Amino acid sequence: MQTLQPSIHLCDPTLKPCLDYMQDYASLPDFQYTEEFYDKAKMLWEDEGVQECYGRANEYQLIDSAEYFLDRIDEIREEDYVPSNQDILRSRKITTGVLQTSFEVNNVHFQMLDVGGQRDERKKWIQCFSDVTALIFVVACSSFDLVLREDQNKNRLQESLELYERLWKNRFLRSTSVILFLNKQDILAQKVSKGTSLLSHYYADYEHFEPPETIEPPEGWCCFSTKRKRAEQRRRESMFPALNISESKEFFKAKSFIKAKFQDLSVCDEKEHHFIKHCYSHFTIAVNSENISIVFDSCKDMIQRLHLTKAGIIR
């Protein structure tokens, strides 16, 4: 709190021992969550100074689910507490290394490789680029006002854009289509609604951006290797559900702007490529299990089609 500029102080100074306890003991790797911890955590969370600090969460590193769990301290502290599906979905663990998952859906075998997105993890990606049917790229759209954990001078959304461009142009992935998840739309909507963080503060071109009248069903942004008419070759995908969240005009503009940023990067040099490559985009809320379930079914069908296309079975 005091490291922020301008700094923030506890509204109730008698809670200073609670703050010291959290800083000195609760951060230890072998810390045990005692009743004392829950009591102090609840008192601190209810302090107006701490709430003000939370309101400026974009100025430091904090998981998105902090408010969700802190609002449920009384429930979590119970001895018979069992995490709900929503609790598990909102839990966060940094991915390190390469995690491989194999599963079958309707007698179709899938193999998924999950890789960490941190800079020091990216050197491990090259081993995953062989025989890839599709690349799933997940971007946190709400990160437009955040900086990287490993680089305090680098905007997270800008880092995602630059990383996406490098992957799109990577010679090992030149025939691999991308499924783009424009994720955390719920948090983006909250930030836009509060108005405390503005996209225009981070992207000068946002102010003059003109969003479409409506967002069409997720489409494949295609890059073609010949000069055939793109309008005749472009295939639109209509397999994703709409998001069930309140959509203001400003939020619609914000998510359209971010989508357009990635769309502008999803092009290829016709002289260097001899294939058709697509980027299939979708607005997602990963903690919405119903939404993601439908998205997964759609992606399953899409990946099967891409695999058959690569094999030359269909066109």
TrEMBL record:
An annotated Gene Ontology molecular function: G protein-coupled receptor binding
Domain of life: Eukaryota
Name the record gives this protein: Adenylate cyclase-stimulating G alpha protein
Record-linked CDD domains: G-alpha (cd00066)
Residues that, per the record, bind GTP: 64-65, 89-95, 114-118, 183-186
Pfam families recorded: G-alpha
PANTHER family for this protein: G PROTEIN ALPHA S SUBUNIT, GTP-BINDING PROTEIN ALPHA SUBUNIT
Alphabetical GO biological process terms: adenylate cyclase-activating dopamine receptor signaling pathway; sensory perception of chemical stimulus
GO terms for cellular component: cytoplasm; heterotrimeric G-protein complex
Key words, A-Z: GTP-binding, Magnesium, Metal-binding, Nucleotide-binding, Transducer
Positions contributing to Mg(2+) binding: T95
InterPro entries xrefs: Gprotein_alpha_su (IPR001019), GproteinA_insert (IPR011025), P-loop_NTPase (IPR027417)
